[in-house]
């Protein structure tokens, strides 16, 4: 074998080994990221999940708002990426607890009775004004001692929560997307899709409740979202009792 042939063979072998090593490294990193994503969402391979659909309260017939449909599509993409299966159910037809399979619940208490049950059980520090009458507090959030009013199309709020049932390590999480308007629900699902790796690094598999602000949705849609803060402690603690009123007599 001449030196030229030997160099060619060694070069081919080296290129093959480099390609194989690169493929192995990329596959390993991809699988590690997938396992972390599956752990965060509670969606191992071929697992089952539940997607709870809300109802558009402004429609005379049972219907889903188009922005909520977009939110559901983004969640379905996340579930598919994890290699899991999804069952879609309306908020009227779900009659079961949670923890056996991952749940994604979309819509505020005015459009989703399933959300009402979750808030009563797990978010005692949150109150949402669902009074249909116009007024400055319509749709307002009260979280602990703070109030967040909505300016439709300009400044709107949405809660994004990952909650687990008790201390069971094997319990699957429930993800809540509870917004003041349908477009804020989509904003929260998009925020989760974009930032789930960062959230997993920060919170691990623990529960959290984030308050997000959707900025100028009338111009930017659901894309411009700011994190107001982590409100887990306030949202999961009972609301403070109102201060007693002092009576004064003349």
Key traits:
single chain, 250 residues, alpha/beta, seven-stranded mixed β-sheet, three-stranded antiparallel β-sheet, 10 strands, 38% helix, elongated, Secreted protein, membrane, transmembrane helix, transmembrane
Question: Can you tell me about this structure?
Answer:
This is Secreted protein. Keywords: Membrane, Transmembrane, Transmembrane helix. It comes from Streptomyces marokkonensis. The chain crosses the membrane at residues 6-29. By secondary structure, the protein is an alpha/beta fold. Helices cover 38% and strands 22% of the residues. The protein contains 6 helices and 10 strands. It has helices at 3-41, 66-81, 113-122, 182-203, 217-220, 232-236; strands at residues 48-53, 85-90, 102-106, 126-128, 141-143, 146-148, 155-163, 174-179, 208-215, 225-230. The strands form 2 sheets. A 7-stranded mixed β-sheet has the order 2-1-3-8-7-9-10, with helices on both faces. Strands 4-5-6 form a 3-stranded antiparallel β-sheet. Helix 2 links the parallel strand 1 (48-53) and strand 2. Helix 2 runs parallel beside helix 4. The longest helix has 39 residues, at 3-41. It is elongated. It starts with a helix and ends in a 14-residue tail after the last helix.
């Amino acid at each position: 074998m001449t030196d030229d042939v030997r160099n060619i063979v060694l070069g081919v072998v080296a290129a093959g080994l480099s390609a194989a090593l690169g493929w192995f490294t990329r596959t390993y990193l991809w699988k590690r990221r997938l396992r972390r994503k599956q752990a965060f969402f509670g969606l191992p391979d071929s697992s089952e999940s539940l997607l709870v659909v809300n109802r558009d309260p402004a429609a005379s017939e049972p219907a889903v708002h188009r922005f909520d449909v977009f939110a559901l599509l983004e969640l379905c993409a996340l579930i598919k990426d994890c290699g899991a299966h999804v069952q879609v159910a309306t908020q009227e037809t779900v009659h079961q607890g949670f923890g056996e399979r991952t749940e994604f619940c979309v819509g505020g208490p005015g459009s989703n009775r399933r959300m009402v049950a979750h808030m009563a059980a797990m978010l005692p520090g949150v109150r949402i004004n669902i009074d249909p009458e116009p007024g400055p507090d319509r749709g307002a959030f009260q979280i602990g001692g703070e109030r967040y009013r909505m300016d439709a199309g300009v400044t709107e709020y949405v809660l994004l929560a990952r909650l687990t049932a008790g201390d069971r390590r094997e319990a699957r999480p429930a993800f809540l997307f509870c917004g003041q308007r349908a477009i804020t629900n989509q904003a929260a699902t998009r925020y989760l899709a974009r930032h789930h790796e960062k959230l997993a690094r920060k919170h691990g598999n623990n529960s959290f409740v984030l308050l997000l602000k959707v900025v100028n949705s009338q111009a930017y849609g659901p894309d411009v979202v700011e994190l107001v803060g982590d409100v887990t402690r306030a949202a999961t603690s009972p609301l403070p009792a109102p201060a007693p009123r002092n009576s004064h007599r003349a």
